[in-house]
Design a protein that fits this description.
The structure is a homodimer of 174-residue chains. The first copy, chain A, is α+β, with helices and mostly antiparallel strands. Chain A is built from six helices and six strands; from the N terminus they run E-H-H-H-H-E-E-E-E-H-E-H. Chain A is globular and about 55 Å long. The structure holds a DNA duplex (30 and 30 nucleotides).
Chain lengths: 174, 174
DNA sequence: ACCAATTTGTTATGTTATAACATCCTAATA
DNA sequence: TATTAGGATGTTATAACATAACAAATTGGT
């Protein structure tokens, strides 16, 4: 088995992905309908802005975008709680993930309730790959269980270099 | 092999551990001497305060303690950079770890350069167990490498219930 | 004692997140 | 269709976490 057989989980910071976004929003509509929760216009727009970011988005980046577009529409701006509440909803429903080591949010590539995701964060270009590898999840749960610890949620984040950046000899933190 | 054969990695939030602290400070002295870096009085005191906390300590908790004791000593107080710089030094030299999901710091149980640690965080009592399991580290590195990603640093944190709290039926977040 | 480098002090500010309460919207029902 | 109860959003204020920039003091080597 060659490495080429594996689909890359990376979402480069800059690429054309209107289609990804549309798919993600459609999936979100479906998932929320199934769960009986309301993906309101605001929540849907925040999800769209997260995806638009082509990478991890911080809460205040989203807030600024929201403010800008509301100002243009003659409405008043927006305040932090507006964004944080939408993010909380999206997190609770598995539509986005929070990357703890970046204080940032990213669209979930395979939304479904109660999965955590595992993230490969390039320290050079900032792109993020999402894994959801059951071997990793199970190994950690097993090791914890051996200590008598019952895992409810895993935070797995690896900082390093993506294939692209490793190839041209970048260093983490450049 | 029974579970009893495994030494618990848990450090309950409240227990008597003057000895642990002394050992940790001795180890820190030795490690810094070996590395040729200076564990100054301030840095050593901050390390001691982190250990005194009987669990994860936040930067401003440490700052408050430092202020209090300096006020008593007739000196002026302390400001955030004083604490953050000491924490940065201790992190850089592997004497403490930062727990990203708590924005908190905890003494490293087995200090040595360049290891990350893996944390089991009880969502009920707040106690934290530190693992440093090479199987977990290797599996994640291997899975990442299969995607062409070179891992430099891993953040592994599991929220759940410690043996004690699981036994009396607590829930995460209580 | 002098110097250069490191460490610490100090002021100000930037960044991330939530509490508390008011208002508005929406969907179910009478 | 008018009512209404719950959920969603608006709004103000503040809490919690962290760093930039520059000044002063300390330390170790000569």
């Amino acid at each position: 088995m060659t490495q080429d057989a594996v689909v890359s989980p990376f979402r480069p910071v800059r690429h054309e992905h209107d289609v990804c976004i549309d798919d993600a929003l459609d999936a979100a509509d479906a998932l929320c309908a199934k769960s009986g929760v309301r993906l309101t216009a605001l929540r849907r727009r925040v999800l769209e802005l997260v995806w638009d970011g082509h990478g991890p988005m911080r809460a205040y980046d989203i807030l600024d975008l929201l403010r800008d577009e509301r100002m243009r529409d003659q409405k008043r701006g927006a305040a932090p709680p507006t964004v944080y509440r939408a993010l909380d909803f999206l997190l609770a429903n598995g539509l986005i993930h929070r990357i703890e080591s970046l204080n940032a949010y990213i669209g979930c590539g395979a939304p479904s309730d109660g999965h955590a995701g595992q993230f490969l964060i390039c320290g050079d270009c900032g792109s993020v790959g999402e894994l959801d590898d059951p071997d990793i999840t199970r190994l950690i749960a097993a090791k914890a269980e051996a200590m008598g610890f019952a895992v409810a949620h895993q935070t797995i984040e690896a900082m390093g270099l993506c294939p692209e950046c490793a190839r041209h000899g970048a260093q983490v933190g450049d």
